[in-house]
Design brief:
Length: 129
């Protein structure tokens, strides 16, 4: 997904849905890794004093190639062997890494952003019990 308008709209939707769960002074920054062959990786960092900013990395050939540039512990080894479809979520520390393997319009909607936020908030609630 290299359409910066679609990416920015999705980031704004995600931030709007997530903001209702945050205390004052807690922000969300995003870094987007677009992929030319479809999809993108969005890394959201949340925390006190974090500025609500967005950064766009240069497009890579694939989400697998972009994943090599992101510090994470969920995937290792030969990342070219993975096939990402739909929306995949990784939670690490104060970061949420969203890997979208396709450019399907339904993967980049406000309702998809709301569903991801619900998944995150629901998993945090379950782990606190």
């Amino acid at each position: 997904m290299t359409d910066s308008e679609t990416l920015q709209r999705y980031i704004n939707d995600f931030r709007r849905h997530f903001a209702r769960y945050l205390k004052p002074g807690v922000g969300i920054t995003s870094k987007v890794y677009p992929a030319e062959t479809g999809g993108a990786i969005l890394v959201f960092t949340i925390g006190p004093g974090v500025k609500n900013e967005d950064e766009f990395a240069p497009a890579t050939q694939s989400v697998n190639q972009a994943l090599q540039n992101i510090p994470q512990s969920a995937f290792g080894g030969n990342l070219q062997g993975f096939i990402f479809r739909g929306t995949n979520l990784i939670a690490e520390g104060n970061r949420f890494i969203i890997i979208k393997g396709e450019d399907s319009p339904s993967d980049w909607t406000d309702s998809d952003a709301a569903a991801i936020v619900s998944q995150i908030v629901g998993s945090v609630g379950r782990s606190a019990q």
